[in-house]
Amino acid sequence: MQTISSYDFKGKRALIRVDFNVPLNENFEITDDTRMRAAVPTIKKIIEGGGSPIIMSHFGRPKNGPEDKYSMRHLVGHLSELLGVEVKLAPDCIGAETKAMADALQPGEVLVLENLRFHKGEEKGDVEFAKQLADNGDCWVNDAFGTAHRAHASTAVIAQFFPNDKMFGYLIESEVESLDKVMKNPQRPLTAIMGGAKVSSKITIIENLLDKVDNLILGGGMKFTFIKAHGGKVGSSICEDDFLETALNIEKLAKEKGVNLYMATDVVAADAFSNDANIKVLPVNEIPDGWMGLDSGPEAIKSFTKVIENSGTILWNGPVGVFEMENFSAGSKAIGTAIVEATKKGAFSLVGGGDSVACVNQFGFADGVSYISTAGGALLEYLEGKTLPGVAAVRGE
Ligand code: AMP
């Protein structure tokens, strides 16, 4: 398999699939350029290697062909600033005019193709469309982990036109390496902390994790479904009555597979879903009507901390309380602190999934964890044990 570090880009037109789906404000200014900055090392590597980067991405959700609102033209100026070189914009992502611009590129010159989703063939994974995209380049670099779970033309189908000239960019390479450190060859014990609101959205992940982890901490709103399944009183806490059996089944599976399952024994309960509500610490299964559990209690925090600090590998997905409100953020802060401590002692830690990333950033733990995955849907599908088309296509699987 080719790698971005060893591939010879000299004189090559390198088609790079990136994820430049950045948010814009009403004046079409970029409000968060994280995804663009993340792609810079890969683009620069190609420039330094004497190649010509040709950037392709989707951007927003255009419905029927080109829409100025979703034109890549809004991004070109900023990309040029990030790279320190002039960046050209093609009128389309396929077609004669675009191909002529790609062919005319000199080493070090950068071209951005117009939004891939202006063509229906992108999301359909149309082979003919992929072929036309491929005509613009001599090699294909996939650096868009965020769309790796989609078998779109530019993220997977295009691979067939570059049997010997396809590779991951740095971003996707480090995502895949980090995820493999957790899911394929972890230092034991491996602990996963699953939080968030509902168990229903995480069942497949939990089931897949039960085959891999030594310890599973189930926190956040989802634990109340388990507590209720055992006849506990959960008051007005979030609870999914349709999943009581599922919860019991997960517990049974954990037992069969020898996984230590940890859930909070106490909670910080409130009489309203508000930071100004009255609060008290209660046993997790004795929450009266009108009260709801919104964070892990002190006893739970103590036990979670101990498990995390003794782990060799840690995966964190989902806050263990309503961390957006100060009064219910202690549990998630404690999880973050314990992960940072374990990482200092040599554990490998990976945080992923929208809300846990927000949590880690909000509380300043970002520098203390080994890897933060920003991949969203692709990460969740990977954790569910699914094959990601964008990864498999590069690996030739
Ligand atoms: P998810 O998107 O499923 O990871 O859920 C994240 C959300 O779960 C966050 O917005 C948290 O505020 C919320 N959450 C965590 N714990 C609780 C809880 N005990 N009750 C209600 N919501 C919670």
Q: In the CATH classification, which architecture of the largest domain applies?
A: 3-Layer(aba) Sandwich
Q: List segments where confidence is low: pLDDT < 50 over at least 5 consecutive residues.
A: none
Q: Outline the biggest β-sheet.
A: 6 strands, parallel
Side-by-side strand order of the widest sheet? 3-4-2-1-5-6
Q: Return the domain count.
A: 2
The hetero compounds bound to this protein are: adenosine monophosphate
Structural commentary:
There is one protein chain. The chain has 2 domains: 13-171, Rossmann fold, CATH 3.40.50; 186-383, Rossmann fold. The chain has 14 helices and 17 strands. It has helices at 34-48, 73-83, 96-103, 120-124, 127-134, 170-183, 203-210, 223-229, 244-256, 298-309, 330-344, 354-362, 377-383, 389-395; strands at residues 13-17, 52-56, 87-89, 110-112, 139-142, 166-168, 190-194, 215-218, 233-234, 260-263, 266-270, 279-283, 286-287, 292-296, 313-317, 348-352, 371-373. Strand 15, helix 11 (330-344) and strand 16 (348-352) form a beta-alpha-beta unit. The longest helix has 15 residues, at 34-48. Bound molecules: adenosine monophosphate. Adenosine monophosphate is lined by residues 195-198, 201, 220-221, 238, 293-294, 318-319, 321-324, 353, 355.
What keywords describe this structure?
single chain; 397 residues; alpha/beta; Rossmann fold; six-stranded parallel β-sheet; binds adenosine monophosphate
